[in-house]
Amino acid sequence: MVVESLSPIKNFEIDTYDTDDDGRPRRKGTMVTASAHIITSVIGSGVLSLAWATAQLGWVAGPIVLFGFAAITWYTACLLCDCYRCPGPNFGTRTYNYSGAVKAHLGGMRSKFCGVVQFIYLLGTAIGYTIATPISMAAITRSNCFHKEGHGAGCHTSNNKFVIIFGIIQIFLSQLPDFHNLAFISVVAAVMSFAYSTIGLGLCVATIIKNHNIENTGLIGVKIGEGGLTKSMKVFSVLQAIGDIAFAYSYAPILLEIEDTLKSSPPENEVMKKASMMGIAVTTVFYGLCGLLGYAAFGNEAPGNLLTGFGFYDPFWLVDIANLFVVIHLIGAYQVFIQPTFQIVEEWCKRKWPQNGFIGNEYPVKLCAGIGDFRLNAFRLVWRTTYVAATCVVGMLFPFFNSVLGLLGALAFWPLTLYFPTEMYKKQAGVERFSAAWMRVTVLSVVCLVVSILCAIGSFDGIITSLEKYKPFKFET
Fold first, then answer.
1. How many angstroms separate the CA atoms of 143 and 199, rounded?
2. 232 touches 66 (CB < 8 A)
3. Residue 6: its pLDDT value, please?
4. Distance from the first to the final alpha carbon of the chain
5. Backbone angles phi, psi at 294, to 5 degrees
6. pLDDT of 286
């Protein structure tokens, strides 16, 4: 890899033949690439925790909550898809991102609030992936250790070295300029999610056949008194389970950024709705199978993660492969969730300092034959490297951050998934106050607000429990 010339290409100059009508790079996204982005962002390794969530809710409430949030996510996603183009005097103009859509439909103050919530949520998700990926890396080491030393061996290992490896990989990948360059990574990540979910399902079925029964299950899940479970513990576990399922579907914070990668014809909102339907349908099938079959396999003792919580020890090589697929998927998912933050900060800096060469100049870099050229930007290199490094440091410093992420998810779920989409819909469609349509979306928003508050309360319990065992930089499994 060499720099062809020290002469910069100033301010991201782009050949006019390869631009859209607004001067931005021509978009090439399709329903397939958008679906891959959605599946990559939605089907996280959290799919493997749904057996535990089902165990807390039982055979009745578990499926109801799962399919209920699938329907809510699909409905609000359709509302949000229609908000990509501006209403009013600027009708038809692209909004490019979530906060831009809120500004166009609802005004500046709510746009700023949306931007803050979105930034915090995306940052928290990035840190969560920084913690989750090394756990799967370490699980491969532990699986091999269990195979050699026996299932009773501790086989504990520090995850810090895996965080560093993850960070180095992300520093390189984060230099991809924007969402338009992530299609291949998202497709690979989506395939990986199918692969490890399928392996998990296969292992669950094998366990069910081996045990010949599902007696250790119940209509209401784990019962009070079972294993020392108290009433308060039951309440908190149910709230956490509902929160896990609700937030497992959430991709609203990056939906419009994904829609901005689509070609202008056919209309982006129509294609995005089809992609959302495909993504959510595929996700729901895998979520339902993993949750229900995992519960049937392990009953009320279902682990928090089927692969890293060692619901399965053998065949160890298959467990290793599944965890490797999880790692590859989360590497891609991390990029999908941090690109909106990168783009928002970089676009703001370009508007603030349009003549600054450090921010605006790009240098052509010749890559290997057949790959093409790459444009290096000094500000992008420094800023994105710093961001990735910061998420890695926080991940090692606060290894219980997944509990915090649950709280952030609870606080961000309602405004990003319900409030802003329904408010923009009411403004765009001119919905009259107290009409049937107004009542429908308002009641839905209020119900989900209550769910968010309750799940936030449940997350506090997890944070308090984690703080009791907290040791800085002691990230071990």
1. 15
2. no
3. 46
4. 38
5. -65, -40
6. 83
Instruction: Answer whether 131's CB lies under 8 Å from 308's CB.
Output: no
DSSP 178: S
Kindly list the distances between the CA atom of residue 283 and the CA atoms of 245, 270, 319, 348, in Å, as whole numbers in the listed order. Answer: 12, 20, 22, 34
- Residues in contact with 116: Cβ distance below 8 Å, sequence separation at least 6, in sequence order: none
Considering only CA atoms, which of 347, 377, 350, 349 is closest in space to residue 363? 377
* pLDDT for the residue numbered 228: 74
User: Which segments of the chain have a pLDDT < 50?
Assistant: 1-6, 12-14, 16
Question: Between β-strands 373-376 and 363-366, what pairing exists: parallel, antiparallel or unpaired?
Answer: antiparallel
Rounded distance, CA 382 to CA 67, Å?
43
Residue 303's φ and ψ, nearest 5 degrees, are -75, 160
- Residue keyed to tokens 């958008």: 34
Global confidence as pTM: 0.84
Amino acid at 423: E
Query: Mind listing the pLDDT tens digit for each residue in 41-56?
Result: 877 656 777 888 898 8
Q: Which SS3 state, helix, strand or coil, does residue 299 take?
A: helix
Cβ-Cβ contacts under 8 Å for 407 (sequence gap 6 or more): 456, 459, 460, 463
Structural domains for the chain: 2-468 (1.20.1740.10)
